[in-house]
Amino acid sequence: MKYPIFPLNIFLLPGEITILHIFEPRYKELLRDVEAKNMSFGIYYENDNNVENLGTMVHLKKIHNRYPGGELDISVEAGYIFRLDAYYQFFEDKTYSGGSISKVKNSINHEIRDDVFGELVDLFRERKSKKVIEIPRRMWDVALSLNLKSEDKLRLVSMDDTRSRESFIASHIRFSRALLKQEKANQYNFHLN
Length: 193
Description:
Elements: E1 2-8, E2 17-22, H1 25-37, E3 41-45, E4 54-66, E5 72-88, E6 98-103, H2 114-127, H3 139-145, H4 150-158, H5 162-186
Parallel strand pairs: 1-3
Antiparallel strand pairs: 1-6, 2-5, 3-4, 4-5, 5-6
């Protein structure tokens, strides 16, 4: 399958929403086509660690701002993860790039183990969020709730087995809890002159 490709240094998980500022002429053209044809495009994770050539198909969710020079602020929502099989500097007769992709089949979006979920519940309690939220049980949602860096999301997706992914997530939960504990301890150590 051939799709327009937008190389960026971000890796998105399915269901993740992000805001992009579109300013290059070729990607302004891409967004005009996306709007006119209601089509999806791929965000290829442009990073040296991306040896599997992975990216995420996205669709336009909302245009937040249109600027006089044609720049845009948009939000996109990630769909599925793909492997970039071939990259084309120009997609068909357009100025933006494209590529041949294949959908990555994986079973990563399973429910996490009860012990990992228990650690996540503890983290959410310790955060003491003012709003009522449902604590996620599925792997994508858990990963998104931890605000993982792109490199970590790529590592998670690249892992072959459920146990490794759950251990990876559990270590991030423990790290987040340790940071939160340190923040709380430090809040009393600052004094104004």
